[in-house]
Amino acid sequence: MNGIDRVAKAKERQKVIISSLLFLVVFILFWQLNTKPSVGGKTEGLPGPLAVAERAWEMLSDPFYDRGANDKGIGVQLAYSLGRLVVGYSAASIVAIFLGVVLGLYPTLYRAANTYVQILKPISPLAWMPLFLYTIKDSAWAAVMVIFMSSLWPTLANTAFGVNSIKRDYLNVSSLLQLSWLRRLFKVILPAAAPAIVAGLRISIGSAWIAIVAAEMLIGGTGVGYFVWNEWNNLQLNSVIFAILTIGVVGVLLDLGFVRLAKAVSYTE
Amino acid sequence: MALLKIDFVTKYFAGSNGTGDLCVFRDVHFNIEKGEFVTMVGHSGCGKTTLLNIIAGLETPSKGGIILDGKEVTDPGLDRMVVFQNFSLMPWLTAYENIRIAVRAAYPKWERQRIDEYVQQYIDMVGLAGSEHKRPAALSGGMRQRVGLARAFAVQPKVLLLDEPFAQIDALTRGVIQEELVRMWMATKNTVFMVTHDVDEAILLSDKIALMTDSPEARLAEIIEVTVPRPRSRETLIDHPEYTRIRKYIIHFLVERSRKIQEQGGMAVADRTVLAI
Fold first, then answer.
1. Residue B59 host element (H or E)
2. B56 to chain A: which residues are within 8 Å by CB?
3. For residue B17, which of A107, B122, B178, B251 sits 20 to 30 Å off, Cα-Cα?
4. Distance (Å) from the C-alpha of residue A267 to the closest C-alpha of chain B?
């Protein structure tokens, strides 16, 4: 890249950052103007940005306190949610990648299973909740299973597609070299399909993070979803808004991890 | 006994929408001796690559079979390595790793250090030193095919199968790599079967050239011996009188005689011998 290109790129970047900050300022002004001033410590209508910032500062300065069932720090609540996410999502990913590879390698099975996958895919993972509550009889595990269901299909479908569309050439080379099935899996099939698999994993973590909030609202007890609902019951709207923002930020961080992973496994032919 | 026997191989492709099966080539029959370099020349679509894939075990013959070292082979194996027209390197591996994966497969009992030394030896042989840790996407076509050649030679197969290996490489680089291939072949005395439609390439590299008629129902018309003495180089080759004669003969074949022979239903396979033209 030459110098002129670099200068142009830096300028473009500057413009993006300035516009982005402008959006934020406009949004906050709009928000503030639509908030009624608090009267005697009681807020009417939506809390303003200042009230939320104040609450955020309070929550963030002591994120890990635990004062009983309905009073836990945001860090503790996030840890519960992320814990469920890790368990359900990891289990789903292992199952989905395994099944996806099998389906991808055997086009007959792929076509046979595809109808069912297409039917199961659009079902909201929350719809399974009653079945899980009835069979597992444990609400915490039922929530984990909801995460499992929410992160299964995108990874499964993408892995099957990725493996199914591996170039014939790479498989030919591995049969010429008589690679054992393990080496074939880890040296050829998985790396070849990795970009598609990671794309699936990325969609999955997004839908898992969306599902966990709703699942925790239903099961209650712990987690950011429950926190939002609990604060709503307490009519603490500034906490609710703060929690919404937190959920968004954590979602972005999770996604960024996968952007990095996608970069690491990508290749050009 | 011949090392490789192509034993009356016929290949049909399933015809599209019920037009019946299409016969690509019929009763192709010839032998390759150990250490020989045999090239098949023919028009596009005469099934050269299909025949090469059948020998490699990547496709199955409709009739006939392939006998290697006295045994029929039907599946791919390390005794037959292919150098592909499109290189077929794993794009997520570096040049080094692409060769290494083949070496590990061919010599499963070797220790890590021995494998690495051996890989480096082939990297140096094909002139890849300095670029070995780049991925194929960062290499030129010529460099990529050097990786392909190193991968195939490193396995030390009984037969090397070259499928139009230089077709996707620019003309100047092509000449250089062809001469490198001559050198590698002279050093290793590998048995090679190559398919190409480049007549000069065939004459430069081969001991014998097998001429195919046109598809459908292509047949092996004749096998000619390349009487230009070795060592050959592109420079000495073009001045050699035998070169001009063989080149003329092959081009006349490709332009007129392949069609005529085709119309007559091909040569009687049993009578066909090697022609020293």
1. none
2. 176
3. A107
4. 6
Contact B86 A192 (CB under 8 A): no
Nearest to B28 by CA among B275, B210, B239, B160: B210
pLDDT truncated to tens, each residue of chain A (269 aa)?
567 888 999 999 999 999 999 999 999 999 888 887 655 555 567 888 888 999 899 989 888 888 887 788 899 999 999 999 999 999 999 999 999 999 999 999 999 999 999 999 999 999 999 999 999 999 999 999 999 999 999 999 999 999 999 999 999 999 999 999 999 999 999 999 999 999 999 999 999 999 999 999 999 889 999 999 999 998 889 999 999 999 999 999 999 999 999 999 999 98
A192·B90 Cβ contact <8 A: yes
Residue pair A224/A77 in contact by the 8 Å Cβ criterion: yes
Chain A closest-CA separation from residue B263 CA (Å): 36
Q: Is the ipTM of this complex over 0.85?
A: yes
Q: What does DSSP say about strands B37-41 and B191-196: parallel, antiparallel, or unpaired?
A: parallel
If DSSP codes are grouped into helix, strand and coil, which group holds residue B208? strand
B149: closest CA among B209, B91, B81, B203?
Answer: B81
